């Protein structure tokens, strides 16, 4: 009798152990599939971005429209266009909602002011519609943003007469992304730097280009070897955003002596805090 009970207990124990292993295996498999799914989604989006920018690079505007949301097509058609000289996808970030994503693309820029090409980051908004990713352009009525091809400063920024690089200041980064920002969420932006020259350097003639940016730094002169930070406050409520769209703004200022200019860029994905943007067909 005792032998039969012992065998029955061992059988139950083996069954329980097998059941636990099956459950743990199922959970591990689910986690693995979820991780693979997330990775695959980013890979798919990166592929779409690459195809879109390849079309921009070759000047195939009809093909570009295949990657735009319905409302973005008319915006794109009204823009002045010329083939991109090149591009590099810097980052692809799918937002927690799984329906929108922020993609940063480096585009080389040249002009009479900047004859030597230099990469400028542009944050773009992508939206998942019917299981496919589409680029959404900013609506002209809500914000004065650069077009997908036009990367030069807008607003009241005056183009500098000299190259936008300072020989006296070394910045840790000339581009800052604030991530996703709601319209009632003020953000502080910081650009750290060091005076690498042998003389004092003064910061002057700031051109912020947008009422949404406010200069917070009070110290304007830095001794040789001294480190500092250019701090700004970003207030998205000044833009009147009621939808999700990308934002990018250049800040230009002059350094004295020498008269060199510094060009910095802030970027964000703007969203209304009161509503979730609906999907567009």
What's the short story on this structure?
The protein is built from 3 helices and 13 strands; from the N terminus they run αααβββββββββββββ. It has helices at residues 2-58, 61-65, 70-77, and strands at residues 88-94, 100-109, 118-129, 132-136, 169-171, 175-182, 187-195, 201-207, 213-215, 221-222, 227-234, 245-256, 260-271.
CATH class equals Mainly Beta
> Could you tell me the mean pLDDT?
75
What integer value in Å does the Rg equal? Answer: 26 Å
Low-confidence stretches: 1-17, 19-37, 111-115, 141-163, 275-281
State the helicity in percent bands: 10-25%
* Main sheet: strands, sense, barrel: 5 strands, mixed
The CATH fourth-level homologous superfamily: Immunoglobulins
Q: Which band does the percent of strand residues land in?
A: 25-35%
Q: What is the number of beta strands?
A: 13
Adjacency order of strands in the biggest sheet: 6-13-12-8-10
Shape: globular
Distance between the termini: 72 Å
Overall structural domain count: 1
Structural class: alpha+beta
CATH topology: Immunoglobulin-like
